[in-house]
Design brief:
The chain is α+β, with helices and mostly antiparallel strands. The protein has one domain. The chain contains 3 helices and 3 strands; from the N terminus they run αβαββα. Strands 1-2-3 form a 3-stranded antiparallel β-sheet. The chain is globular and about 40 Å long. It starts with a helix and ends with a helix.
Length: 86
């Protein structure tokens, strides 16, 4: 691994840690139907970019982007849902 790749990898890990600094449980397993719908709506695979987050004060989970690409995927998905009337 080159020094540049190592720096980017370290930066990405730090970014993920910052994003995950919330109270609750993070699960890399997402509901399969949601996962499939995201891929169908956006053409992007959310794995590694979005996790399922269960806030400490709620039993309901929700998608939580952990990378910049995850932010983009989720934004695109929300727009797609709005356009489809969901």
């Amino acid at each position: 691994m080159s020094q540049e790749q190592e720096i980017l990898s370290r930066k990405e890990r730090e970014e993920r840690e910052d994003r995950l600094n919330k109270k609750g449980v993070f699960d890399y397993a997402m509901p399969q139907s949601w996962f499939n719908d995201v891929i169908e709506a956006t053409g992007a695979n959310p794995a590694g970019h979005i996790v399922w987050f269960y806030p400490e004060d709620s039993g309901m989970g929700r998608p939580e982007p952990i990378t910049e690409m995850g932010d983009n995927i989720l934004a695109h998905y929300v727009i797609s849902c709005n356009m489809r009337g969901q």
